[in-house]
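Incident log, entry 3
Record: D-amino-acid oxidase (386 residues)
Problem: checksum mismatch between cached and fresh output.
Input:
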Amino acid sequence: MKKYDYIIIGAGICGCSLSYFLKQYSKNILLIDKNSDVAFGASGAAGAFLSPLLGKPNEFKSLVTKALKFSLEIYKKDFAEYFQNSGTCRIPKNQEDFDKFKSYIPHMDFDFKAFEDGYFFDIGSVVSSYEICKKLSKDVEKLFNYDVLKIEKKDDLWIINDEIEAKKLFLSTGADISLINEEYFDIRAVWGQKIDILSSTKIDINYHKECSLSKSIPKNGKNFISIGATHHRFKENMEDTSYNLKLKNINNIKHNKKTLEIINNDTEELLKKANDIKKLEDIEVIDIKIGSRASSIDYLPMVGTLVDSKKSFEKYPHIKNGTHIKNENLVLYENIYTLNGVGGRGFVLSLYLASNLVEFVINNKILDDNITNYRLFSRWAKKYKD
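Fresh output:
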């Protein structure tokens, strides 16, 4: 049985970011994915826009601001060829939105100026999602087209499918959390679609209104533009469509009628919203990708150690009545960690979160409580009923 220092399950932006920081400490790393390449899930269907979060001060806004500053430095330094900084114009979608924006002005974390029908942020950027994930995970051993059906703790090791051993295991599986048998670890699948088009229209900067519109890049005598993304939280069972978390390589398979109807409707919706920003002429849709973003119930990410709820309840039964127990006293799963729940801001958050998690695992750096799994366990435990 082959043994690794670190195994990462999930090769999207979260998993690839982890591999980037872990390889500074070890060469014995394995990155696993059920798909045939990196960024073949939600990360590949992301517009990968990098822009500030607008709003009044709160925990999530503070996190996004710190992560954006951190990630931009790395993208500019190590991934300049896949990074484009042309600024972003944020356009209020209606008068109510405009009034909200005015109330946010005293709380802006980045410079901006009035521009066209909105406000221009110099910091606004975009990255090439696939290329970024590819380079982040460069020189890391990979195992693709591999289904992880079982993970099991034996002594100090995690065993995957009775075939591979890991001293430490990282789960970055996005919306598919079937490997985590804990009710408090609550992830919602938010399906999105991104389209790439060619157009005779030249776009000089990035825009965001009800969708995001990228600066155009010359290609084949026209202008290459990315538009994203749609948002679906399906309430019905979608296992008979391509919107199925268990499917592999969903953007390379033949979609059935039900799936195609949603894809075609989403394409029309994106083009309509993009044309509300800039009139696009001579449009040719050249690529469509769908993927499921992972969103936690409070929108903050889910990072770090997992609490063993069963053993924690056995040790502290009064937790169920709302009694607070210090995080360090809870019973934890050893040597297994998560980096998940980054939602639609994966390319902003993941590098920052991965860096923090790696430093936590290797150098005992303390993680902020508001990004850890402890917060959701605590809320869930207080409401738990036998």
